[in-house]
Amino acid sequence: MANGEFGFIENIKTIFGTTEDIVGIGDDCAVIPMGENDLLVTTDMLIEGVHFLRSDATPEQVGYKSVAVNLSDIAAMGGRPIGTFLSIALPKDAQGEWAERFMEGFAEISRHYGVPLLGGDTTSSLRDVAVNVAVVGTCPHGGAILRSGARVGDTIFVTGPLGDSGAGLKLLLERAERTPDEDFLVGRHYSPTPRLSEGLALAATGLVGAMMDISDGIASDLGHILRASGVGARVALDALLTSEQLERVCGRKGWSAGELAASAGEDYELLLTAPEEITQMVDFPLYPIGRITEGGAEIEWYKGGQRCEFTTLGFTHF
Question: 4-140 has which fold?
Answer without folding.
Answer: 60s Ribosomal Protein L30; Chain: A; (3.30.1330)
